[in-house]
Amino acid sequence: MKSRKTYLKAKSVFIVSLIVIGLTISIVYLTGLKFDRTIELNSYYSLTIIGLSLVMFMTYGLYNGIDLLNNYPVFKKYRRGAIFDVASPFPEETPDLDIGDGIEGVIMSILIWIGMTILFIVLLFLVEAIFWFSIMVLIAMLYWVFFRALKLVFSKSNETEGKIGLSLIYSISYSVLYIGWLYAVVYLVEGYLG
Questions:
Q1: What is the DSSP letter of 8?
Q2: Taking the CB of the first residue and of the last residue of the chain, which one, N or C, has fewer CB atoms within 10 A?
C-alpha cells in the first residue's frame, strides 16, 4: 500500500523562507562588520547560504515526494481603471490670489499657509498609503513567483520519490536557475561600480 502524499502549505513555506532569508542576510552582514568584508562578498556569502538551504529543502522535498498546497488568500480582482475612473475634483486652472499688502494680506497668507500645510499632511498620508499598498503588492507578487517556482520543482516529486541522486540533480538545477541570476547581478554591479 502506497503512503499518502505529503503536502506543505505554501503560505507556511513562504513565511519560513522570508524569515530564513532575513536572518541569513542579517547574520552575514553583522559578521561582515566584524571582519570588514565588502558588500559584494557579503552578498556572495548570503546567496551561497540561501542557495545551499534551497538545495537541501528541494532535495528533501523531491526525495520524499512532497507537494505544495496553495492556501494563500485570493486577492480581489479589479477592473483596469476602476480605481481612478472619476473626474478630478480640482479645477483646470488655479485661481489668482491677489490679496494685497496690508493686514488682510498677512491674515490671508497665514490662512493659506495653514490650508496648504493641511493639504500637504493629507497628501503625505496618501503617499504613505500608496507606499504600503505597493509593498503589499510586491510581497504578493514575490509569493506568487515563489509558489509557482516551487510548485514547478515539486511537480517532479512523483518521478524522484525515493531517488536521492535524481532529487539532488533536479534541486541543484533549479537552484542554479533561481539563484544564479542573482550571482550575475552582484557580479555585474561589482564590475560596474568597482
A1: E
A2: N
